[in-house]
Amino acid sequence: MILTNRRRFLTSTAAGAAALALPRRSQAKMPLGQPQAPYFYRFKLGSAECTVVSDGQLPLGNPANSFVKITKEEIDTELRDNFLPTNNAVLEQNILVVNFGDRVVLFDTGMGTDALFGDSTGKMLKTLQAANIDPKSVDAVVMSHAHIDHCGGLIGADGKRNFPNAQYFIGEADFNYWTDDGTIPANYPARPHFLAQARNNLLPVKDSIHFYKDNEQILPGVTALSAPGHTVSHTIFMIDVGGKQLCYIGDLAHHPVLLLEHPRTQFAYDTDAAQSAESRVRMLTMLASNRIPLLAYHFAWPGIGHVATHNDGFVYFPANPQMETVGEL
Ligand SMILES: [Zn+2]
What is the pTM of this model? Predict the structure, then answer.
């Protein structure tokens, strides 16, 4: 008799506690809709302080429209196996700023005012401000190539230079190709945007451009390495600070799965897709065999990690972010 009562008591108490724990709609514990974390990330490379600032996400839409020489079924399988959405390939835009102490160098500049990929791009100036980086303090703007999402942030909506004290670096072949209506193929995707944005941003700063060459040390600690194919003079950059290296790979690969697992898969925006794949395999093999960390412009935020060879391709290992200190890479 006593046992039965005790059991009844326990049952009713548990039910009462459960009822109390159920929140009522009008009594949320804290407001919903809080803002996301800031879109910049700092790390050290030797004595240099690096900051990745975002220009925002660039949604490509249906991956089958951008990644070619691969079937839709293979795309779906690779994306699903990597827990990525199969209906929209979203690229980040990771802009690297390196403060060498006596010089500030910024690599690529985002979409600027062009809204080809929607309103989630063009955030660079806001993100620089959030990261406490004054555009006037930037001494050099280094561009991997002359595509819309890399040179688009040179000139502001007011027609003035966003980095008024900077010298600019780009390949001469890219400068000529993308500012010339006669060279861009008629069927190039979104051709008018690419032509207009290259002209609007590159022509006004021509007097301040240094056209780099393969293997040229363009600045102390920054060496240009030609990796053509995505564009005619697409280039990546080896950054060396007292023996600590980081390779900024620009658009050597746009996707950490689709262009790495099978690196000869082609990208619709490549001017010479076969040459692009050759450059990708050659440079990623070099980075993998030397265990050199890389920063990829379009990989998942903030785009820092390593590649290793795997089967016939590569696998990307993102670095662990260090959020409590400005940690060493
Ligand atoms: Zn790009």
Answer: 0.90
